[in-house]
Amino acid sequence: MDSTDAIVVGAGHNGLVAANLLADVGWSVLVLEATPQPGGAVRSGYVTAPGYLSDLFSSFYPLGYASPVLRALDLGLTWRHAPDVFAHLLPDGRAAVVNRDIARTMESMEQFAPGDGDRWQSAFREWKRLSAPLLGSLLAPFPPVRPGLGLLARLGTSGALRMARRLMLPARQLGSELFRGEGATLALAGCALHTDLSPDEAASGVYGWLLAMLGQEYGWPVPVGGSQQITDALVARLSARGGRVLYSTPVSRVLVARGKALGVRTADGTDHRASRAVLADVPAPTLFLDMVGSRWLPPLMLDDLSHYRWDGATLKVDWALTTPIPWRNPSVAGSGTVHLGADLNGLTRYSAELATDSLPAHPFMLLGQMSTADPSHSPPGTESVWAYTHLPHRAKWSGSEIDAHVQRMESVLEENAPGFGSRVAGRNVFSPADLERDNPSLVGGALGGGTAAAFQQLFLRPIPGLGRADTPVDRLFLASASAHPGGGVHGAPGSNAARAALARDRGLTGGAYRAAINAAHRAVYG
Q1: Which of 49, 188, 447, 517 is the 20 to 30 A CA-CA neighbour of 286?
Q2: Which residues does the chain have with pLDDT short of 70?
Q3: In whole angstroms, what is the distance from residue 249 CA to residue 181 CA?
Q4: pLDDT recorded at residue 510
């Protein structure tokens, strides 16, 4: 049995962030990745036609660009911005466009209602005053004591109470309180649907507000050369500090003795010892139910895990186009990301169909114009495009169901860009099963590591009592998007897990750290 200070299960970006932070303080680190390549959902490849680069899973990174976690790692990435950040294209052909130039955004919003340009500017000024401590609070371990105090100092008691209310508002309600026209509200609501929440669901507003305002402040940039550049930089940084990554090495078991994680066993029967910590960048149900097992977990925790809710499934299509998209409304041609297929009521209907396990006849889509953002994605004068839509979370989809829904997606595109189909030089379809095959952490095609609903956030993520990276098994830490603060490429779950492992190893105040964790778990699980 070989031995290292820490074993990280999974080479997704969170696992690689955790591994880098531990290597920075001199720990020996071994990362075990189940698939033949690193990155998890942060990868690129040529899947449509020669010369057309696709970001295979995630793409456009406002949180990654703004994240203090990733910035502190100094990955040396070069970022590019599309001319416009994003646009929401309505069925009637109008478009609400967000540009990093606030004046241009104001002009777009003003077309939907007089005064909405000024209202957008006012909302952005409020965001700017709070953005640094707010991001710090969102990405820090829960509870976010230091950044939370900074946020409270800026808000004051009255402002904090109103902010707490805002964080629980549905996107539709938040939009109606901030704006008068549909354009600005749709800019928020469309962003909210990057999660699995409907515009009428509690707390959907904060996701829309967060992504829209990040776009206004930072844009939604992409790394030059594709999302793989983020992963490659993390791997290179880790290697330079002596860390190792083993590929095609799935972990089947966390080795536990007397309630303490001692290492892992891989599928081929090899045991790897971890003298200080095991960090798992895998979904919470996979870690606890498959790798740890019921013997080491409280019965009530097992019951809570049975209620764990995944976010919706995803169907993603990549296209290689011989020309840019021939948009009916040319104002969306410069947007890196385009939301299309629904107005505000259409978003509600679309979400209701998903909630009732139905396939929307007219799907709402999130679309990325990659060559518009970074011309290196395709030959000059062409476009590398992706689009995805959500599906109900099911155990299995038939090929005919997937094919029919791809046709619906392309019909939406043809409605908004006549002649789209004639420009397709190549296409790749990722069904939910394909996504999970290429990245086992995308269970059933779920991109977020679990629902973004309020009942599975903060101290309730992934289940009640596990709002921190610590687990009931000593020296075992959850480092995936299943942990607080959840999905998105920002590195916070990995960073939080590394910080928890270091705190445990230091044995803060003579072992009081683990004693406090044990007491908290006993209070929740008995």
Answers
A1: 517
A2: 1, 508-526
A3: 53
A4: 44
CB atoms within 10 A of CB 240: 10
- The helix (run of H) or strand (run of E) holding residue 209 is helix 204-218
Nearest Cα residue to 406 out of 377, 374, 385, 428? 428
CA distance 485 to 494: 10
End-to-end CA distance of the chain: 35
- pLDDT, position 514: 60
pTM score above 0.85:
yes
Last residue of one domain, picked from the residues 387, 415, 438:
438
Residue 469 in any domain: the answer is: yes
Extended strands (E) in 285-382: 313-321, 335-340, 365-369
**Residues 6 or more apart whose Cβ sits within 8 Å of residue 74:** none
**Residue 145: per-residue pLDDT:** 72
Q: Is 459 helix (H, G, I), strand (E, B) or coil?
A: helix
pLDDT, tens digit (0-9, with 9 covering 90-100), for 76-124: 999 999 999 999 999 999 999 999 999 999 999 999 999 999 999 999 9
86 Cβ partners below 8 Å, 6+ apart?
A: 97, 98, 187, 190, 191, 215, 220, 335, 336, 337, 338, 339
User: The domain spanning residue 513 has which CATH number?
Assistant: 3.50.50.60
DSSP 8-state assignment for residue 290: I
Number of domains in the chain: 2
CA torsion sign for 282, 286, 291, 293 is positive
For residue 515, being part of any structural domain is answered with: yes
